[in-house]
Design a protein that fits this description.
Helix-turn-helix transcriptional regulator; WH-like_DNA-bd_sf; HTH_HxlR; two-stranded antiparallel sheet; WH_DNA-bd_sf; DNA-binding; 115 residues
């Protein structure tokens, strides 16, 4: 039996978007993919994100298993974020979304001819 089309509990896109949806998470994942990042370096890479929002996004990505947070026993303490295997498995998806976004932007830049 096929699930009803209007019931989002059957849609596999919903849990994926719950983990990576929003404006900031893909950008955070991308910058951490480039190399282990500290909180301050992420703020510099994404200057329009607030400290509160970055903290929230990092906590959610760690909770969902995409990030690993390592605290170094130093004074002052140092924290670095890296991608987990699950986080790395997201990269082809983000690359595909990026390619689609570029294509969409190009299409919008070229006005269609009206017959």
């Amino acid at each position: 039996m096929n699930p009803p089309l209007f019931d989002l509990t059957y849609c596999p896109i919903v849990p994926a978007l719950e983990v990576i949806g929003g404006k900031w998470k893909p950008l955070v994942v991308y910058h951490i993919y480039l190399g282990a990042q500290r909180f301050g370096s992420l703020l510099r890479c994404i200057p329009t994100i607030s400290k509160t929002m970055l903290t929230q996004q990092l906590r959610e990505l760690e909770r969902d298993g995409l990030l690993h947070r390592e605290v170094f026993a130093e004074v002052p303490s140092r924290v670095e974020y890296t991608l987990t295997q699950t986080g790395l498995s997201l990269l082809p998806v983000l690359k595909a979304i990026g390619a689609w976004g570029r294509q969409l932007k190009e299409q919008q830049a070229v006005p269609e001819l009206v017959a």
